[in-house]
Amino acid sequence: MTMLKLFTYLAGQGIATQRKLFPDLAEGVRGMPMLTDAACESGCNACAEVCPTEAINLFKYDEKGGITLDLGSCINCGYCVDVCPTKTIVNNPTTRVAVKSRSALILTNGPKDKTETQEAIAKIKLPTPKFGARELTKPFKYFNRAVAARVVSTGCSACDMEIGASGNPVFDLERFGVTVVASPRFADALVVTGPVPKGMQPAVTSCYQAMSSPRVVVALGTCAISGGVHKNGYADACGIDQILPVDVYVPGCPPHPWMIIHAFNVAMGKEPPARE
Question: What CATH number should be reported for the domain holding residue 51?
Answer without folding.
Answer: 3.30.70.3270
